Amino acid sequence: MTTPRTPEPGTRLPSVGTTIFTVMSALAAEKNAVNLGQGFPDFGCDPKLTQAVADAMAAGHNQYPPMPGVPALREAIAAKIEALYGRRYDPATEITITAGATQAIITTVLALVRPGDEVIVLEPCYDSYVPNIELAGAAVVRVPLTPGSFRPDFDRIAAALTPRTRMILINTPHNPSATVWTEGEMRRLEELLAPTDVFVISDEVYEHMVYDGARHESVARFPGLAARSVIVSSFGKTYHVTGWKVGYVAAPAPLTAEFRKVHQFNVFTVNTPMQHALAAYMADPAPYLELPAFYSAKRDLFAEGLARTRLKLLPSQGSYFQCVDISAVSDLHEAEFCQWLTAEIGVAAIPLSAFYGDGFDQRVVRFCYAKKDETLRAALERLARL
Q1: Most buried among 222, 285, 310, 328, using CB within 10 Å?
Q2: CA–CA separation, 65 vs 70, rounded Å?
Q3: Same domain, 294 and 167
Q4: Buried b / exposed e across 59-81, counting CB within 10 Å, b at 16+?
Q5: Rounded distance, CA 244 to CA 56, Å?
Q6: In whole angstroms, what is the distance from residue 320 CA to residue 293 CA?
């Protein structure tokens, strides 16, 4: 009997392996460490939200919704964006519900980027950006944010623009550095792109997590950016339900039409009862308007404890991440330090080098403070050894 032959699959992503988040989470579990690596809460969402899902299911909302999403949810999103950022998106033609922000990003790239195009990413960046661009057959152009401050370097961005540039991806509040772009920086980008036909993906999943009296500068606030941008946001981040994988995009009608061409064959649509529940829950803006106070309290609790160690805190202006410089603690490279920290101290973190294509090591690691206060205190008790 002939042994069945398994065809050689080849690979579309030759440089992609197991992500650092999987590696560090597995090590944290093995060592019984407090996992401050992967960015998700260890606390529950508002019971009113889960009850709204149960109500939606009981009401019979269990079949396919419209491909772009439940109309009531799209209308609620349009109202929120207009109230916060002053731009009205048409719920019918300019807002689409997605299976999380990650699906929104890859769908946007596949819809708007052509083989041979160039796409600018600002490093360090979220780990899905580069594979998405490669799957579209485009060339990745890496432009580093300013080391140390992680602010955009517009001279370097300008130098990276060529006639082949099709798109730039921006992210504010920023993962992993926790920096927040200023109004001035957004206007610089608006001016820089004005004479071009470059599209923008604006990853705004942490839009409601901006601290110390600052405000989130959505591209929706800037007409020259809004006209060329696809805004991506996440209910998972906002409402502490990352496992639901529900997000949305907002974009001008011509861009939305192209997005939906891919979306309909990618996921088609997103689970119905969650959409109805989110639409009902959004009637009260308090849950997202109160997020800055909620998370800044956790940030401050964590920072006060870290201040008693030799780790040097970098500013955490937004998101739910805290970066620290490890130079005074260890001579190890970032990845080695995170493995040592997990195994010997019992706290898992993520090396910033994992967010760079070339593994650029600047002796900085990232913690996630979207955790119960008791989780943060348990981590701080262990980190006090540093």
Answers
A1: 222
A2: 6
A3: no
A4: eebeeebeebbbebbbbbbbbbb
A5: 15
A6: 12
Are 97 and 273 in contact, with CB atoms under 8 Å apart? no
Domain that holds residue 254: 63-283
β-strand pairing of 247-250 with 229-234: antiparallel
> Mind listing the pLDDT tens digit of every residue in the chain (386 residues)?
677 888 888 788 888 877 888 888 899 999 999 999 988 999 999 999 999 999 999 999 999 999 999 999 999 999 999 999 999 999 999 999 999 999 999 999 999 999 999 999 999 999 999 999 999 999 999 999 999 999 999 999 999 999 999 999 999 999 999 999 999 999 999 999 999 999 999 999 999 999 999 999 999 999 999 999 999 999 999 999 999 999 999 999 999 999 999 999 999 999 999 999 999 999 999 999 999 999 999 999 999 999 999 999 999 999 999 999 999 999 999 999 999 999 999 999 999 999 999 999 999 999 999 999 999 999 999 999 99
CATH of the domain at 200: 3.40.640.10
Torsion angle of the four alpha carbons 35, 38, 39, 42, in this order, in degrees rounded to the nearest 10: -40
Collapsing DSSP states into helix, strand and coil, what is residue 148? Answer: coil
Domain boundary among 267, 283, 299: 283
Domain-terminating residue out of 265, 283, 301: 283
Look at residue 3 and tell me if it is in a domain.
no
Name residues whose C-beta falls within 8 Å of residue 231's C-beta, 6 or more positions apart in sequence: 81, 202, 204, 218, 219, 220, 249, 250, 251
Residues comprising the chain, all counted: 386
219 DSSP assignment: G
Instruction: Answer yes or no: do 334 and 224 share one domain.
Output: no
pTM for the full model?
0.96
Q: Is there a domain that residue 304 lies in?
A: yes
